Amino acid sequence: MSLKRSNRKNVNLTDDELKLFTIISKMTGVPVGMLLRQMAMKQAFELINEEQVAEYQVQSSQKGVLDHL
Description:
mainly alpha; 3 helices
């Protein structure tokens, strides 16, 4: 089943970045576009998780010892 994507964004890569993605694509057999999507999604999830962890650390540092029990 082929997914038709209607939302598109452009990414401008340097020659070296393109070479790197091309080599990774040849090594893994995964198309460059899919590699870029996977990398973008992974980074987005990491950013979301970092904010949640940082927020939790701030909240937990403001609680007293008895609040944790």
